[in-house]
Write a structure and sequence with these properties.
Length: 506
């Protein structure tokens, strides 16, 4: 008779086979036997979403943990809607444009249209739902499929959304407008539908982002066809900078829009820039003196079990993975050693900035050095592969408990150069510090270490404005993470700027 462990292994083999065949983490009840499902659920490898539908989970997840669900949400929505509506479904115009704009935040309620829908609200875990509305879907030529999710096409979505979309989701709207490179498809739909009011709105919207060519073309073409078009800007505010309408990546423009939308809020909620210290050695000594406190708090925020004794042992050189097998196998020791090495590299970067070098340029050039030092001990110990130090990630990552989905690997490569360009160009050190930290972790360019590198970047930018090194304390982790979530999901940087500003010594 098979042991319980052998039975569980057999159940896991069945789940693995299913995932290998379909590449999915969403399981329908009919795809596994009742016994296997019950065994996987009992051991924490499957979790029921709604009757007959399951997602893969990890046994170590605690009750109430949102990570697996947020990771699975978009895939579940796609599989569920395909199963229920076949090809007769599409997201609402608003949510279609948000995905076109690269906004993959998990919504509280996903709005789905289908001509065979029953106006049903399907309650899902963690206060999310799918509401299907009995409405016709666009013709095939007016639909797009992004990662298997049926959407309104970009142009059809811009015509179909209500006017308040441009104020409620200004960043998404502007990002989508910047993706339109030619007005012909848009104009064809406006003319065929006789959409003079929508044409007036879109002309004003294109003018708002600096695309005068498309704005003028819409107005002149509609007027020549006999329509009364009176240009109307639907955005609540004028754009304060020139958006690059030739940029091909929605993610690059999205980062620029977020930066300029948030910078005034940061300035208003962060202490004024200090005088840059003239005594560089004294400043660097202050940074060194705070190392133990910073390392303890920064590593503990990430979940590493770090003690002051371990930090001091690392600092004192009483740690050697080649001699101590215990240290070689101890992940926490690797993290502590790596943090010390990275901290020294960050100090070198600060010195260059205090000597007059551009802060954004230094960070853009040297942040990869901080990352390599952070994880080099784990490579030396054999915990990580040497290729893990190669640079930005090549796979999708998720943030535990967050509704925000970091950029995909291709998108982050478009976004990271933009971040460092913005840091180089920014005149306010407070903005460089707060938005540098926030947008770095928003992008999440590495498989691990993003929070630690983000806090290093924060302090490097603080130094450029004469602020002291600032520790984010473990005891305020919940407030810190909540403020990050508010900025990432809702686009509101206020709480994050106030939180970090409250920590800074003035």
């Amino acid at each position: 008779m098979a042991t319980p462990q052998e039975k569980l292994a057999q159940a896991l083999e069945a789940l693995q086979k299913l995932q290998n065949e379909k590449g999915i983490a969403v399981v329908q009840s009919s795809e596994l036997t009742r016994t296997i499902k019950e065994r996987l659920v009992a051991n924490g490898f499957l979790k029921e979403v709604v009757k007959g539908w399951y997602i893969s989970t990890r046994p170590e997840e605690r009750k109430g943990d949102t990570t697996s669900w947020y990771m699975s949400f978009w895939y579940f929505a796609k599989v569920y809607c395909n199963n229920r509506f076949k090809d007769d479904w599409c997201l609402s115009p608003d949510q279609s444009l948000m995905l076109h704009a690269g906004n993959h935040t998990v919504p509280g309620q996903l709005l789905v249209r289908s001509s065979i829908a029953s106006n049903n609200n399907l309650q899902l875990p963690h206060n999310t739902s799918i509401f299907d509305t009995n409405l016709s879907v666009p013709e095939k030529k007016d639909k797009s499929v992004v990662d298997g999710v049926n959407l309104y096409s970009l142009e059809h979505g811009l015509i179909s959304v209500s006017e308040d979309f441009f104020t409620r989701h200004a960043t998404d709207a502007r990002t989508c407008l910047a993706m339109v490179k030619d007005s012909s498809i848009l104009l064809g739909k406006l003319l065929d539908g006789g959409h003079s009011v929508i044409a007036s709105r879109l002309a004003g919207a294109f003018r708002n982002i600096g695309n005068n060519k498309i704005a003028d073309t819409i107005v002149k073409t509609m007027q020549s066809a006999g329509y009364d078009v009176r240009e109307n800007d639907p955005f609540a505010q004028k754009l304060s900078f020139a958006l690059n309408v030739r940029e091909t990546s929605p993610y690059a423009n999205r980062i620029k829009l977020m930066w300029h939308q948030m910078r005034e809020t940061v300035i208003a909620n962060f202490p004024a820039t200090q005088e840059v210290p003239s005594d560089i050695d004294a400043y660097l000594q202050e940074v060194e003196d705070i190392y133990v406190n910073d390392a303890y708090n920064s590593l503990s925020i990430e979940g590493y079990r770090v003690t002051t004794e371990l930090i001091e042992r690392v600092r004192g050189g009483n740690w050697d993975p080649e001699i101590s097998e215990e240290d070689k196998k101890e992940k926490n020791a690797m993290a502590a050693r790596g943090y010390y090495q990275a901290f020294q590299a960050v100090k070198n970067s600060i010195q260059l900035i205090l000597e007059g070098n551009n802060a954004g340029e230094v960070a853009g050039r040297e942040h990869s050095d901080w990352y390599r030092e952070l994880f080099a001990p784990s490579v030396t110990a054999g915990i990580l592969k040497p290729s893990d130090l190669a640079g930005y990630r090549n796979n999708q990552v998720y943030i535990k408990g967050s509704m925000h989905t970091p950029l995909n690997p291709d998108a982050l490569r478009d976004a990271m150069p933009v971040l460092f360009d913005l840091l180089e160009e920014e005149t306010e050190a407070s903005v460089r510090a707060v938005l540098g930290h926030f947008i770095f972790v928003y992008i999440h360019p590495y498989m691990d270490g993003n929070g630690r590198i983000g806090r290093f970047l924060f302090n490097v930018m603080l130094a450029s404005g004469g602020y002291s090194w600032t520790v984010v304390p473990l005891k305020q982790r919940d407030a810190y993470m909540a403020a990050l979530e508010q900025a990432s999901v809702n686009g509101d940087i206020t709480a994050f700027a106030q939180f970090l500003g409250g920590l800074v010594e003035v």
